[in-house]
Write a structure and sequence with these properties.
The structure holds 2 protein chains of 2 kinds. Chain A is built from 5 helices and 2 strands; from the N terminus they run αααββαα. By secondary structure, chain A is mostly helical. Chain A is globular and about 50 Å long. Chain B is an alpha/beta fold. Chain B folds into 2 domains: 216 residues, Rossmann fold, CATH 3.40.50.300; 69 residues. Classes of the chains: A mainly alpha, B alpha/beta.
């Protein structure tokens, strides 16, 4: 599958650095099944021109994704998705997810949702991601 | 590591008989390939700094090197490598836009007429109107075409977009973003529109009280400058303070603290010491700018 720069959306004035936004979105595209191992990311030049951002910002995002073992650089082809199996024990990986769960719970409480209602939201997004991956 | 394009050491500039000091020891190095945003409140000396860099003003003290030379005595060869968009476009009002372009082109061996024509089209500029009666925004567009068309290695922009409409501003930013494809392209860009810098700048320098208060990679700056929102179990004392804070605001049991950098240890300590919820908020460039100015 091929993604285009138009599938990315950057908000320069958000507090999150643009390179982090791109990294998060690549990860989200992989999690959502829009990108699979062996797929090619848009070139740095294409991304910078379409999104109207500095080339170095895109390079930085790609290099960090490479260092994190999400993509790998292939001569002549550019950046390929190459998500390695997660290393670390289940408890390690759960600890990594914990802060996101905290955010979700806090927001849920602010919205006066019950525990069960929050879990429904989580299950719904799991299902949606699975369905879009299979589609 | 390539040689820096701009090197400034202890630059001083005072004006007038009373020798009002505007720049009081500016140190700044701009490496080749950098897009450096220059920010600072009005009257902080951004234009003065830029004019000293271009050899349009003589510094009162300190040293400047542009392409390794003193800008006051810059060789024609190196002058041709620089493009400059001044705050107020200096054009020849009696010429048509076409004549103005041809006039400028004659000075530059590297003038790229097809690139100039492309910029003219992008900006929707009229070739055969006289320059004089053009609106300020259109004059600024002409000045941008004049500064870019010889494909300068060093582009210096002094609030170039102040009078541009949003469409033209976006076009201009896209041209700048495209210029960053070239590894040797160096840009120094002064502006108040921080969202423009967030798109194209790789580095940021902030002028404050006559010297550079902050000079850092833009991403690194956003990674480190954070605001802590602290919500304690009980009212916080009025003397509440955190070492290294840029600004602290306390109200009852909550406090907002802007920090130049945050580490997990500090957050943990705040949580236990004050029995507090501490959240870390990301700041955009405008917020960082404001927090730093209030110090």
């Amino acid at each position: 599958m091929q993604v285009t720069p138009l599938q990315f959306e950057v908000h320069p004035s958000s507090g999150v650095p643009i390179y982090c936004q791109i990294m998060d979105q690549v990860r989200a595209l992989i999690a959502g099944g829009k990108l699979a191992n062996g797929d090619v990311l848009p070139s740095v030049r294409q991304m910078a021109a379409e999104l109207g951002i500095n080339m170095m910002t895109v390079s930085k995002a790609y290099s960090k994704l490479e260092a994190d073992g999400v993509v790998s650089r292939s001569r002549g082809q550019g950046m390929l998705v190459d998500q390695r199996e997660h290393v670390g024990s289940v408890s390690d990986r759960r600890r990594e997810l914990q802060p996101f769960a905290e955010q979700l719970v806090v927001r849920g409480i602010q919205l006066s949702l019950s525990d069960e209602q929050m879990l429904t939201v989580v299950r719904n997004s799991q299902r949606e991601l699975r369905e879009s991956a299979n589609a | 590591m390539s040689k820096p394009v701009i090197e400034i050491r202890d630059l001083q500039k005072s004006y007038g008989r009373r020798q009002k000091a505007v720049l009081q020891g500016v140190d700044l190095t701009v490496a080749s390939g950098t897009v450096m945003g220059l920010v600072g409140t009005n009257g902080e000396g951004k234009s003065t700094l830029i004019k000293c860099l271009l050899g349009l003003l003589k510094p009162s003290g300190g040293e400047i090197r542009v392409f390794g030379e003193d800008p006051w005595d810059l060789s024609p060869k190196n002058k041709a490598r620089i493009g400059y968009v001044p705050q107020e476009p200096a054009l020849l009002p009696w010429m048509t836009v076409r004549q103005q372009l041809a006039y400028a082109a004659a000075f530059f061996p590297s003038w790229d007429s097809s690139f100039a024509a492309e910029l003219m089209r992008q900006f929707g500029l009229p070739w055969d109107d006289r320059v004089g009666p053009l609106s300020l925004g259109q004059k600024q567009k002409v000045a941008i075409v004049l500064a870019l068309a010889h494909r300068p290695e060093l582009l210096i922009l002094d609030e170039p977009v102040a009078s541009l409409d949003p469409v033209a501003r976006r076009r201009f930013l896209e041209s700048l973003a495209r210029m960053t494809e070239n590894d040797n392209q160096t840009i120094l860009f002064s502006t108040h529109i921080t969202s423009d810098l967030e798109r194209v700048a790789s580095h940021l320098a902030m002028l404050k009280d006559g010297s550079i208060a902050v000079c850092d990679e833009l991403d690194h700056l956003k990674d480190r400058v954070k605001r802590l929102r602290i919500s304690a179990g009980e009212d916080l004392p009025t003397w509440f303070a955190i070492g290294g804070a840029l600004r602290t605001e306390v109200q009852g049991h909550t406090a907002l603290v802007a920090m130049a950098s945050v580490n997990d240890g500090l957050v943990q300590e705040l949580r236990t010491r004050w029995n507090a919820d501490v959240s870390i908020e990301d700041l955009n460039l405008e917020e960082i700018f404001v927090e730093m100015q209030l110090v």
